[in-house]
Amino acid sequence: MPGQSADRVALKDGRLVYRACSMAFARSVGRQSPDEVIGKTDFDLFEGEVAREQMALDSQIMFSAEAGISTISLTGDRGAVRMMIVRTPLIAADNKVAGIDIRLLGGPPAQQTLDYQALVNGGIQGSLILDGDGVLYANDIAANVFGYPSAQALMDNASAADIFEDRELGLISSAAGSGSEIASTVDTQRLNLQAASLTGSQVRLIAKVTRIHWGSADAILLSFVDVAIIGQSEPVTDGGTVLPAEVINHQLADLKRIRANEQRYRHYASAAADFFWELDAKLTFRVASDGLVRVLGIPREHIVGRTLDQLLDHPANINEESHWTEHLALLRDCQPFRDFEFRWSVNGDSRMVRYSGIPVFNMAREFVGYRGVGCDVTATVRQAETMAYHANHDALTGLINRRSFEQTVKEALCTSRQSRKSHALCFLDLDSFKIVNDTCGHQAGDELLRQLTQLFDSLVRKSDVLARLGGDEFGILLYKCDVPEALKLANQIRHEVENFQFLWHENRFTIGVSVGLVIVDDRWDSIESLFAAADSACYLAKNEGRNRVVVYRDGEGNASNRKVSTHWVEEINSALETDRLRLASQKIMALDDRQARGLRLEMLLRLEMPDGELVVPRAFLPAAERYGLISTLDERAIKLTLNWLSANPGMLEDIRHVAINLSAGSITDPEFASRLIGFIENSNVPASKLCFEISETAAIANLSKVGAFMSELAMIGCRFGIDDFGSGLSSFAYLRKLPVEFLKIDGLLIKDILQDHTDFTLVKAISDISRSMGKRTVAEFIESPQLLRAAKNIGIDFGQGFHLGKPELIS
Fold first, then answer.
1. Residue 697 CA: distances (Å) to CA of 275, 559, 663, 665, 693
2. What distance in Å separates the CA atoms of residue 102 and residue 755, rounded to the nearest whole number?
3. 790: which residues sit within 8 A by CB, 6+ positions away?
4. Do the beta carbons of residue 21 and residue 2 sit within 8 Å?
5. Which of 23, 141, 595, 796 is deepest in the core (most CB within 10 A)?
6. Contact 188, 179 (CB under 8 A)
7. 83 close to 101: Cβ distance less than 8 angstroms
8. Distance between CA atoms of 96 and 61, rounded to whole angstroms?
9. Beta strands 217-231 and 202-214: pairing type?
10. What pLDDT shows up at residue 253?
11. What pLDDT shows up at residue 731?
């Protein structure tokens, strides 16, 4: 049972249910025994209004973890009596409030003029109530000043004589006066006092002395301010007995822990948010922290007292009205919310604000408002927007890049299938661009691309999408455009480029453009086949004399279609029959000394034309993929590589590995893996010397098949790499499922890391994450000493590019 039998004390648990009480407490609340109190709540003991008030006060103690004093009107034998209630939170070992200690004190008449709330003042005063040598009441501030771990510890263990010398007690008594009559107005006097703390330190106080009634007795209220700690002495005694050192140390440790926890929670609150706010039940602002005033740029008096709807009428709210509709409905339904974002204008600067809130209810489950926090996330949002922009746009021209263009065309292809409306796709390849680059350098080439971008942008419609696909290639998606209209625009672009003159210092250049045009409609089964057709048409435009437009159409009577469909098919078949497929090798150089010694090469396929011209794969692979010849080409490249290595045993011994590209068509062919294993086993080339590269796009699109293919080949010792890596960092999630050793970073990212901070950051992130996963990185497009140095500084393992070695035909 808490307290002595004469004490009016009780204990509530975390759910505010009485778990213990004294007989005196039970009788004070109109019950005959503690059994009639235990297990009940205030709603079972008091009338509705009184119960709601007391439960609300209990809730404040549970939330704040701070003691509080209030009054309650109880009906007894002498009629209505207003009594004081002291609530003290019970702190568990995990620093959470586990319950409340409740004490009924005194019972001054209702007309008493004492302001009891002065006992729980604003944090600058300590309070003691003295009755002779006894301490009837102390607040937490007094406990801190006198070195006690809590107010209750002070009341239980200290007397007035433990705190004050006889001289000080005399001054207090003299200032309070004598006699049993209390003036109608409270009489107060101020004193300078010295007192002893539990630790033996002397403290100086400026005190206010007030005579009060405490129950039926006269008492003295001492309110004070701690001026300074002025010295040290021996530990004070408790009733003549010196307190054990371990008790004092334990109390001091408890006090330090409480203060540290308070400071920690303040730090958590400050770190978690830029501002705090509160709304009442009518969604009117009642609290607006300095941070909110600063973020919104509005004086506090223009926030507090206004409803959220009124605040949204402010001209600084630059969101659409619909942006708030769902959110305001949620608030009126008293629902919690998290990370709602809105834009707010401050002095012409648009800010992004994110805030969260929870509804607050009293013990009667009545909604009383909202309480929450928020942050200014402008910098974070802008950084994310910048990253997203650079990930989808070309740094040189500002146009969207190939990755973003492919996604746009893919969406247009889907809508075309659904709506039966067609669009047009143009591939543009500049003629004679290499002459400008070789004559005047890359700076001139870059300026030419920027000027042509402005020219193209002035010619296309507002609804069209213009993109730079890489190098001197551009793409245009013409929405809801038929063949005649698309052909008219394509020829207009060709004509304007033909008449365009590029000036660079004293040099004057004229260039042209070859255009491949294809209609986007429901006949295309994939974005790859659509791009292959556009690329083939563009190449045919170049092959037929450059500076012209070639339209790809289905249909027997269309000459262009027949040429595009059969040109490269015939060339590929002829090259296979007459052994006109050649291999070139390009060195892959280690960028640090930690890599194992040995020669590393990438094997590159070339098609030799009848006139001896060597054609790179970009020209003929789209047709090979479209017409099912790609696996045959992959097999021929593998055979040529194995034959070359077998014929050069000295070279084979020096080689660490050779990289061979495989297409999506090969790895999804269920029989390809077994044929490939047969080729390897019939040669004298160790499987560990072979590293097969698969593009990131193909790997993700065919993840299960790629995984099975790699696992089968890995069993005999083959190694694997992912080519053109970097289309998205989400790809790292897929790599965990694949036995991949090398990541070849997309050259489009590598080539701009010196000028584009975003590309530099992306490449470094890829390198760092790859290393943490135990995989090694290869940088393509190393075409200058500066790029080589940057790649080394980033920590990339290998480099490949014209600066390190151009592709060379093998004999």
1. 45, 33, 10, 12, 12
2. 69
3. 753, 754, 760
4. yes
5. 796
6. no
7. no
8. 12
9. antiparallel
10. 59
11. 53
b/e code 587-617 from CB counts within 10 Å (16+ = b): bbbbbeeeeeeebbbbbbbbbbeeeeeebeb
User: Can you give the pLDDT at residue 656?
Assistant: 93
CA–CA dist 81, 58 (Å, integer): 21
What is the tens place of the pLDDT at every residue in 89-120? 877 756 678 888 888 875 533 333 333 333 33
CA dihedral 700, 704, 707, 709 (to 10 degrees): -110
Cβ–Cβ under 8 Å, residues 71 and 84: yes
**pLDDT tens digits along 304-323:** 899 999 999 999 999 998 99
User: Are residues 600 and 588 in contact, defined by beta-carbon separation less than 8 angstroms?
Assistant: yes
- Percent of the chain whose predicted confidence (pLDDT) is above 90: 33
Calpha distance 450→396 (Å, rounded): 7
Q: What is the 8-class DSSP label of residue 736?
A: T
Cβ contact 340:355 at 8 Å: yes
Give 1's DSSP letter: -
Q: Which candidate, 730, 710, 727, places its Cα nearest to that of 718?
A: 710
The residue among 154, 176, 155 whose CA lies nearest residue 254 is 154
**pTM score, whole prediction:** 0.40
pLDDT interval class at 523 (50, 70, 90): confident
Q: Is the pLDDT of residue 743 over 50?
A: yes
Residues linked to residue 238 through DSSP beta bridges, in sequence order: 241
CA 517 from centre of chain = 42
Average pLDDT over residues 696-717: 86
The two structure tokens encoding residue 230:
């002025």
Angle 672-681/630-647 helices, nearest 10 degrees?
Answer: 10
Nearest-angstrom CA–CA distance, 122 and 128: 15
